[in-house]
Amino acid sequence: MPKSSLIGQSLLRVDGLEKVTGQTRFAADLKVPGLIHGRMLFSRFPHARILGIDCAQAQALPGVHAVLTAADLPNLRPFGIVFADQEVIVSQKARYLGDVVALVAAESPEAAEEALSLIEVQYQPLPAVFSPQEALADSAPLIHAERPNNIVNHHKVRKGDVSLGFAQADMILEREYRTQWVEHAYLELEAVTAVFHHDQLELFGSIQNPFSTQSMVASALGLPSEQIRVRQTPLGGSFGGKDEVMYLMAARAALLAKATQRPVRMQHSREESFRESYKRHPYQMRYKVGATREGLLTAMEIAILADAGAYAASSTFVTWRSVVHAAGPYRVEHVKTDITAVYTNNIYTGAMRGFGTPQVIFAVESLMDELAQELKLRPDELRRRNLLTTGTVTATGQCLNDHPVSLRDVMDRALQSIDYAQKINEPAQTGTTKRRGIGFAISHRGCSLGAEGVDRAEARLRWQPDGTVLLSIGLSDNGAGLNTVLSQIVAQELGIGTEQVRMDEPDTTLVPDAGSTVASRGTLMGGNAVREAAIHLREMLLVSASQLLSLPAEQLSFVEGRVCSNLDPSQVVSPAEVVDWLASCGKSLEATGSYEAPTVDWQEETGQGRAYFTYVYGCQAAEVEVDLSTGQVRVLHLVAAHELGRAINPATAKGQIYGGVAMGLGYGLLEELDLHQGQARSDNLDRYLLPTTCDVPQVVTPILIENPDPAGPYGAKSLGEPTNELTAAAIANAISQATGFRLRELPCDLIKIVLLRTLKPD
Amino acid sequence: MPVDSKILPFRFRCLEPSNLTDALNLCSQSGDQVAILAGGTDLLIKIKRQMVQPEILIGLQRVPELQQIQTNEQGLRLGATVTLSEAEHYPAIQREYSALYEALRSMAAPAIRNMATLGGNLCNASPAADTAPPLLAFDAQLRLQKSGQERLVRLTQFFLGPGSSCLAPGELLTEICLPAPLPDSGSAFLKLGRVSCDIAKVNAATYLQRRGTVCILCRAAVGSVAPTPVRILQVEQLLEGAVVDSNLLRQAAEAGAKAIVPIDDIRSTAKYRRQVCQVILEEVLQAAWIRAGGVL
Predict the structure, then answer these.
(1) Mean pLDDT of chain A
(2) pLDDT (tens digit, 9 = 90+) per residue, A12-24?
């Protein structure tokens, strides 16, 4: 073993130099001989029957190799991870403006563009619905004929008896909160290339999850998965956003490649990405909370409507995570929660960093501040009286007794760091029109998939003749630093440097499936699998070395990356020598490791159960300055305290916090997709406002709180999403404290209050 | 077809003269289907959005005469294709033309400032152009050249409406001339955008000269509140010859906000613009007065 542990060291990112020097080649940078360009024709209407398509003129255009419609492709099948309701090319009708009615492949993007303009589609527009309320009305058109109504799913939590709980309350508060449509706005736009090698399909591109892409493309095209090889190129951003949209793009590129027998690339412009790609769900949330005079919560009743848009995608899972977390990190005896995801003719919604929690945290943490004000308690005091501690029971009836619940400590550390106790008592007014305020939000977050489904990971390690170790795992680095963290784990267990760890290509034919890189599960699940593989590899090395040295394995130790005899230090052999020797015997040194998450359970009817096997805890606090004359909000200081079990690499962990906070600030103050009759009117970044480095808070203080968890590798758990789920709620509470206005809608647009209207065109 | 920012949707010719004479000749020979390409940060977007469809682009990147910056006792002369970054980093601008420096620093992002040019920002004639209010406040003159002819035009006469200027067909903006700063003078610029890289919802600049406690010269200009960037004479008249105190600056800002005629658009509303125009006018007046050595 090395002298000092690599775990907990801020080693350089293994992909860092390549990225900052601009050498990394992304999906659209790759040169492919003979490449032609695929483009697609979007539906003109958000809900319309397709009566006929005339492609003759487009087909006749010079440079056009193929024009495809659903009529040409009778074997296409609908696909979807929960409900198979989505089509690669729509056959009967379009359900939103991002649905595709025809594909074109041409020698140049310009020729393809021109061909699109020559395709004539006859539509019969159908009545369309653009809000869950409209979609739930009796008279609403049915968006999916095979479903009885427009409900995608309905999750419940039934704990205790809320009528009893409200009867015990001295104070009952009812509030409604809303959140907006949000775009992932990854810097690298969607791009994929499809190449057929005889009947073998190769797909490579900006794909978040190679294995799910493989299985979804297989199911849509009716091909066996084994005929499809999917490679992930380095991701320039995803945030949960490169699943369904990439399944579709990959399948379309494959259809065109098949039809033309040429390699086909498809890539989105920003406008196309806004139009087609799925978004974060907007939520409408009604909360009713009861509390005693002393500030003890007695009951909570929650009803949430989520706009799923035209397709189910991962709505079922997103809203399930919401139902588990909707009552916040509090002890409440009586809880009744209902969340319904509803089909509309809007852009469909799906996975996005946070996955159903930023919405409910904004609501419940605003509610706690409102309740504290009514009860004349300080916001931190109200929370202290109710928050989850070790051995207490969550809203879903899960007793938190198998890991230390650090929430109180996390909250205290954040509040101390921002000097909350002092600042909460300072006058808000700092100038004629300027006000200062401070606010915070807390959360608990279930790690990994929980009761969503099978949760396991597998990894493989091979010691190579040059002494390097090849790590193959189906989890991939989406930008968060996973490859660095996994390399540190391998290097730690094998006594080598991280530079001796090579990452295998994220390629379905090369690496074992480890489930998707989602749910902040990379370090937790991947780390456990990799660690087990490394331990196996070390044991196998000792066994082989004992054969090579003709010494009993018990007499050998693994010291500083070499095997030596405990009795005679001159008897030493390096792993490379062992691998060489094995190779001469026709063998290799290779080990696999796997990890299956501890069991979870869930009763769908009552919403009770052990939803996740462990949780992380977070608190973010914000200090803001608001100019009441202009409505401008400046975040002066943001403290983000996160319990993550253990930081394998503190620098990448802090990187997650900086990025998560910036994204959360956009969610809280700026970002809103302007969706009008199903159409994204903010279709590029001049209208869809993102914070840049110039807009992030002047000071961000990350606080990493370690609290090793028995289930995690070296005690490590999750961090990626928790950093993003709290910021908007903390800022909203700070604004309210500064101004006395309570904004119950995201983004917090104070100009709305200054003007008493929104700045959106009507 | 919907807009696609990846595609230049039609063919055009691009000519790149290597000196000013050639550039002026090309401009006068090329008819009216011509667009001048300086930094391209506005033009290429207009082409992608099919707001313009020129047959010929005349690129000015290789014309060295347009890239000069010169200072002498008369003042500062900036070539039309000096980039925003070059101007921002020019010491005399940082030292003596604070309002212009602040405007340059506030514009877009560094990558855009490395491409965009001063002349382009003016000729694009956007009511929101951030260099316009400070250049109006400094009473800039523009050198407009056509093969064999040239004229000097005050910036106040240059803008005619959104996207429209007094440039004649075949005429090129070649130089921006700023008078040397007067003793005991100060200037300031402020803007309000939705995010820091954004186009202004409202911007304002002032230039003041002081004698003791009296303001002896005032020029105030605002953008995004009228069809063109404009001087606000109501503010200037109130201040010139008056003893300055905070009250007077507030009154002047109020008078300025009353004088403007803003509109509703995607970035803001008229009411909001009027309200914040007053706020930022007051702030730039205060900053410029203090920079001129005044006390409040």
Answers:
(1) 95
(2) 999 999 999 999 9
A384-417 burial: b if 16+ Cβ within 10 Å, else e: ebbbbeeebebbbbbebeebebbbbbbbebbbeb
The overall average pLDDT reported for chain B is: 94
Q: Which domain holds residue A662?
A: 283-450+602-755
Residue of chain A with shortest Cα separation from B276? A630
Which residues in A lie closer than 8 A to residue B268 (C-beta atoms)? 759
Q: Tell me if chain B has a CB within 8 Å of the CB of A389.
A: no
Place of tokens 């968060």: A480
Q: Do B272 and A117 touch (CB under 8 A)?
A: no
Q: Which of A267, A302, A327 is the last residue in one of the domains? A: A267
Nearest C-alpha of chain B: how many angstroms from A672? Answer: 13
Checking if the pLDDT of A762 tops 70, the result is no
> Which residues in B lie closer than 8 A to residue A267 (C-beta atoms)?
6
Residues 6+ positions from A384 with CB-CB distance below 8 Å:
A408, A411
What is the radius of gyration, based on Cα positions, of chain A? 27
* Option in B194, B268, B280 nearest A689 (CB): B194
- A637 phi and psi, to 5 degrees? -150, 135
Q: Which residues of A touch B198 (CB under 8 A)?
A: 689
For residues A152 and A309, what is the distance between their CA atoms, to the nearest angstrom? 10
ipTM over 0.90: no
Instruction: Give pLDDT, residue A222.
Output: 94
CA distance A695 to chain B (A): 6
**Fold annotation for B13-59:** 3.30.43
Which residues on chain B are in Cβ contact (under 8 Å) with A696? none
pLDDT for position B3: 66
Total domains present in chain A:
3
**pLDDT per residue over A94-122, tens digit each?**
999 999 999 999 999 989 999 999 999 99
Euclidean distance between CA atoms B126 and A213, whole angstroms: 46
CATH code of the domain covering residue A334: 3.30.365.10
pLDDT confidence tier of residue A755, bands split at 50, 70 and 90: low
CA distance B106 to chain A (A): 10
- A570 shares its domain with A617: no
pTM: 0.95
